[in-house]
Amino acid sequence: MRHPRVTVLIPSHQRPKLLARALRQYVQAGLPVVVADSSAQPMDTAEEFAAVRYLHLPGAPFEEKLQRMAAMLQTPYAVLCADDDLTSTASILRCAAFLDANPDHSGAHGHYVRVVRGPGEAVVEPCYPDTHVARIASGDPAGRLLELSRPYVPLFYAVLRAQVLREAFGSGHEAERFYAASELALGMATAILGKVAVLPTLHTLRDIVPSQDLGGRKNHNLLVVSTAPEYRPVYQRFVDRMTALLGRTAGLDADAARRAVLASVQAFVDGYCLPGGRKNFIQKLPKYCRRAARALLPPLAARARAQAACQRQAALNAYLAPVGPEGRAELAAMLERFRSAPG
């Protein structure tokens, strides 16, 4: 069955097995897919993935891939999906149906979990624990910009109206290899253009795999980017674009719109980018003692691991309570896909 109202967008780099794993999920569900692949060698899409619109862009920066995919959108909605993650097709379709019924909303998503691989085990845990309290629901676009960071839950993998991606990654989006502005530009464009719903769905299973696309990409956080002289040109372009979008949407003059945008940036910086104070040796001593005891007393170490596992499971159960049996079944199916088709 085809679902032509929402397009899956996948930026990829040097991970053909993971990309194939993701593509099978979306293609089998009948979702249109666009891939922007910056790998040196193209992926073979001739047979199994013939329906995928595949862009081979060797060496292209991440931001350029976003820009190229946004320009190809032909559906009302789109969802960005990392090549190492799996987003529930049931959640994608439910989010799209919600947006159909709620024109005052620009985006919708659900709950996220991640797989953290350690020595001899893979731990499943909540990815964005604040999802259940995040609300972007003000009737005022400037108010929604402040709600975006109170608390901040990334909207990068939400189902969004196509207009959001065009505004965030359209022709005015500079391919600067500057990830922080790309992520926040998408979140801010979403908040400016509408409300965001968190639905009781299992939305995305994130696989914590080291990035293959760091290259020259600048991963400095927004505190650095908003204050360092070398970033001033790109930061000003980012602020100017968000200011113009807010002004057009909310009918604000340029000064008022800029103040609202800067207030939103500052709220994000204050909440998520300020460095924490370093603990001294005395403050760290209890932690060192616990580590030494676990190393010297194997039974104590085993008990500590068991307690930690129980605590993690309790946290996961509480986080997933809204998704119900259907969401848990979706999680089990995606975990099985991870196990049967590892990257």
UniProtKB/TrEMBL annotation:
The keyword Transferase applies. One of its GO terms (molecular function) is transferase activity. Keywords: Transferase. Gene3D superfamilies: Spore Coat Polysaccharide Biosynthesis Protein SpsA, Chain A (3.90.550.10). Signal peptide: none annotated. It comes from the Bacteria. This is Glycosyltransferase domain-containing protein. It comes from Humidesulfovibrio mexicanus.
